[in-house]
Amino acid sequence: MERLLAAEGIDSSTRELLTGCLLGARAEAAEAEVQAAFLSAGGLAPTVLQMPGARLPDVLVRAPVPYVRPLVAWLQERPPYVLALADREGAGIEIHHGGIQQRIVRRTLGPDDDKSGAGRDSRRRRKHPAADPDERHALRVAGALCEALLCSPIELLLIAGDIRAVHGIDRHLPGGLRRRVTIRHVPCVLDRDEPARRRAPRVEQHVHAWVAEENRRFLSRITGEGNSADWVVEGATATLEALSRGRARVLVVVDPRDAPSADAAPLADVALRAALLTGAEARLLPPGTPNTPAEGIGALCRFGG
Questions:
Q1: Mean predicted confidence (pLDDT) in 92-110
Q2: What confidence score (pLDDT) does residue 113 get?
Q3: Which of 2, 161, 206, 298 is most buried (most C-beta within 10 Å)?
Q4: Dihedral pair phi/psi, residue 220, rounded to 5°
C-alpha cells in the first residue's frame, strides 16, 4: 500500500497518516481483513472500516465523492438475519445484526428453559400448557424468535436442525411475523454444537439466495407495468431528484465497473453517496442484470412526489 500511495503522488505526511491508521486497525482485527479507508481533503484522520470476508485487491481512488461501491456490495451480501439451530433437546439462536460492525448476539435455550420471548404467548401457554415435551420446546423457541424479530428491522429467519424440531417451531410462528419476515428452512443438517466457522459457507448460500431474490423483487416493482409514478422513479434525473428530497427508500443502481477520476464521479457513486446520507437502502447490481430500470438507476420511494 505504501508503494501504491507513493506511485499516485500522495505526499509523505498523508501516506504516514493513512498507513498508520490502516496498520493500527488491522492490528485490532481478529485476522487479516480487507479494509476501506476514506480521507477527505483537509480531514484530520481517515475513517477506516473492516470488511471481513471480502476479497479485493489494493486500490487507491481519488474522486470528488467517496468510492463506496465495494463497501455497498459487501454490505448487501451480509444483511441482518436470525439463524435458529434446533434439535429436540434445545436450540441456539444467532442474531446477525449486519451493518458495518457485523455484530452477532447468541442465545441458547435448553430443555428446562421455560422463558418465552412474547409476553402474550407466555400467558397463553401458562393457561393452556402443551403436554408434549416436543411441543413445549417448539413453543419456547418460537417465542424466543418472536422476541428477536418482532421489534427489529430483520427480515430473514433461517431455521435448521432436526426436521421435527424445525417444523414444530415453524408451526408456532404467528401470522404477523410471517407477513413481515421471510422464513426459510435450511435443508442441510446443521448441528448447533458445530463451530460457526464450519457451517458459515452453508448458511451464506441461503443468505445470498435471499439477497438475489430481494434484488429481483425490487427490480420488478420499479420496472413493472402499472406502478404509480408517485412511488417509483426511473432514470438519472428522477432518481437523483428523489434522493435529494429524501424520498428514496430503496435505491437500485447498476455498477458501471469503471473507476472514478479525480475530476468526475460516475452516476453510481453520486447516487450511492446520496442514498447512504439519506438513510435509503442501496442495492448495487452487476452489469448485465436483466430487467434493470431506465439508465440503470431507479428507486422505490418513501412518499409520493
A1: 89
A2: 61
A3: 298
A4: -60, -40
* Extents of the domains making up the chain: 2-60, 81-192, 216-301
Please report which residue ranges of the chain form alpha helices under DSSP H: 2-7, 12-28, 69-76, 119-127, 133-149, 163-171, 175-180, 196-223, 236-244, 267-278
Residues 6+ apart with CB under 8 A from 215: 252, 283, 285, 289
Q: What is the CATH superfamily name and number for domain 81-192?
A: eRF1 domain 2 (3.30.420.60)
Domains 81-192 and 216-301 share a fold: no
Phi, psi of 304 (to 5 degrees): -70, 160
Q: Terminal CA-to-CA distance of the chain, rounded, Å?
A: 46
Over residues 51-77, the mean pLDDT reads 88
Q: What is the pTM of this model?
A: 0.82
Cβ-in-10-Å burial (0-12, 13-18, 19+) of 246 comes to middle
Asked: is 216-301 a CATH 3.40.50.150 domain? The reply is no
Residues 241-275: pLDDT tens digits?
A: 999 999 999 999 999 988 788 788 899 999 999 99
